[in-house]
Amino acid sequence: xxxxxxxxxxxxxxxxxxxxxxxxxxxxxxxxxxxxxxxxxxxxxxxxxxxxxxxxxxxxxxxxxxxxxxxxxxxxxxxxxxxxxxxxxxxxxxxxxxxxxxxxxxxxxxxxxxxxxxxxxxxxxxxxxxxxxxxxxxxxxxxxxxxxxxxxxxxxxxxxxxxxxxxxxxxxxxxxxxxxxxxxxxxxxxxxxxxxxxxxxxxxxxxxxxxxxxxxxxxxxxxxxxxxxxxxxxxxxxxxxxxxxxxxxxxxxxxxxxxxxxxxxxxxxxxxxxxxxxxxxxxxxxx
Length: 287
Description:
The protein has helices at 16-32, 63-70, 74-82, 136-146, 166-178, 187-195, 213-218, 239-247, 256-271, 279-283; strands at 7-9, 40-46, 49-56, 100-106, 127-133, 156-160, 182-185, 201-202, 224-227, 252-253. By secondary structure, it is of the alpha/beta class. The longest helix has 17 residues, at 16-32.
């Protein structure tokens, strides 16, 4: 569900040509549907093509966060439009955002230790937080901190991923290795990383014997879990890894994209203090 997603403004991974396409599609759809006020669009990009998923003539709960990052009171402007003003009357113009804002969803899984925290089409988040910083990595780090899932600055990271994520996890593991983290990996991931010159220590899955992943989590030997789900067709259920992480308050990550962002965040946090600044000081630099 899109409400469970994390996002960043300005975008860091969308090519300019796709941003231009998104702007063009949004403008055309808003005009054709005669939308007056706010409109919530959802897009997907696959194989170099931009697809429209939804066009909703309403606000979303992310609007207040976008307003804070961009320094624009979107709800106020939308109200003025609905009361008869024209967009041309509002004096809006494109501006460069010199900072980054990361929105992260907040989940209630810490209160439901037996529930697998995998996401799907039903929204599970119960709130949102915002991290602001001069770099994307530090903004991501601050957002995770706000969700009460703070990223560790050192220690041991467990990496165990599904076969479909094996290719992308190599760069993730290399980043954590460069940051000085000790890496524990299950057999398939351990073999893959060793073949790519990344030093890891093999750890057993629960059905393979002891001491295993759950033992290590329980004993405080793991500070971060990176586990992409094997899926329902897998011979063995791997939800016990994510449940153990929740039960023992170890931050966990279930996608390689988030793992990459986490590595960037930890690196950025090491480079500088996550200083507290007023929202107005960020907005005052938007030109």
